[in-house]
Amino acid sequence: MTKRTVSAPAAGTPVGPYSQAVIAGNWIFVSAEKGIDPRTGSIPDGGVRGETSQVLNNIKAILEAAGASMQHVVRCVVYLKNMDDFAAMNEAYAAVFSENPPARTTVGVAALPLGLNVMIEATAFKIDAA
Prior knowledge:
single chain, six-stranded mixed beta sheet, CATH 3.30.1330.40, RutC-like_sf, RidA, about 130 residues, deaminase activity
């Protein structure tokens, strides 16, 4: 099996030495993505809800660069700095994954880089992955 890295400028640039995603066979592994607007370089307004929406927009851009879509996502891991923000994150998440949502784990963490409140990683499966 070969693997290929994915770079999606539409999702911004990584904040470290990692690939935004890796395609291995039919699997697409998206690194934990940040909720920073790639056009402005800042965290969007709207608190955790707005930040979660931006994270999911960035994941969408990465998946599109990999030849997939959000419908191919089978699992997500959500990292929340404050579990009190679960409802706000969940509302934004449900707006994207309204039908047949992927499996999900949500974990409370002590801190995230760049002052972020939420990060999400995704795993997608696509029969004809690019």
